[in-house]
Design a protein that fits this description.
Shape: globular
Distance between the termini: 43 Å
Number of strands: 5
Bound molecules: flavin mononucleotide
CATH topology of one domain: NADH Oxidase
Radius of gyration: 19 Å
């Protein structure tokens, strides 16, 4: 097995709660994003962008989301609001991956969204390749209009994920994976 194959075959997310310091510094973040954007992009329109949440901004974003959560149904338990305040402080760096629909002569909306998924996966791989670990999370803030506006999204933009990045504080544990044979069929032309 080649080293790159072995790397891809064994990569695992690490839960955000186990992503410690240090996170990527400015140079490492630039390297992460450079690889993240090296994805197939049919229209060459870059239908994605990033919002970085670091340092004190993590707590401020959590406070804002806690206030919003308090207004949403069902009424939250007090512990839930505490968890909201700490939502982004679990990891040193949170990268909000934004999918943006760009009018394109070539790419369909579906293809632009798929390209954003590729960015997310490349970001996870790049983080691991630089010795960090990552966790792709969404949860209600990704789908809440108020939260979208709070993060500065505009019409046609959606949150594809909050990619938490940091240094793993626990070793990865393997999880269930599907049997490849259950996912594969072979097409054959109809008989007759
Ligand atoms: C789009 C997307 C959103 C996700 N959102 C969450 C989430 O909000 N909470 C969660 O516990 N896991 C979420 N996950 C799953 C985590 O990323 C999970 O840790 C991951 O599937 C582990 O697989 P891996 O070790 O192969 O990376 C999400 C996954 C995807 C693809």
């Amino acid at each position: 097995m080649t080293a790159p194959y072995e790397f891809l075959a064994t990569r695992r997310s690490i839960p955000a709660a186990f992503l410690g310091e240090p996170g990527p510094d400015a140079a490492a973040l630039e390297r992460l994003l450079r690889v993240a954007t090296r994805v197939p992009d049919h229209g060459k329109e870059a239908p994605w962008r990033f919002i970085i949440i670091e340092g004190d901004a993590r707590r401020a974003a959590g406070e804002a989301l806690a206030a919003r959560r308090a207004e949403r149904a069902p009424p939250p338990h007090p512990q839930e609001l505490d968890a909201e305040r700490e939502r982004f402080t679990r990891a040193p760096t949170v990268i909000v991956l934004v999918s943006r629909l760009v009018p394109s002569e070539w790419a369909t909306e579906w293809e632009e969204i798929l390209s954003t998924g590729a960015v997310a996966m490349n970001l996870l791989n790049a983080a691991h390749a630089l010795g960090f670990a990552a966790n792709w999370l969404t949860d209600w803030p990704a789908y809440d209009d108020w939260a979208r506006t709070m993060f500065g999204l505009v019409e046609g933009e959606r949150i594809a994920g909050f990619i938490h990045v940091g240094t793993p504080r626990v070793p990865p544990r393997e999880r269930w994976r599907p049997e490849i044979a259950t996912l594969v069929t072979r097409w054959a032309p109809p008989v007759g």
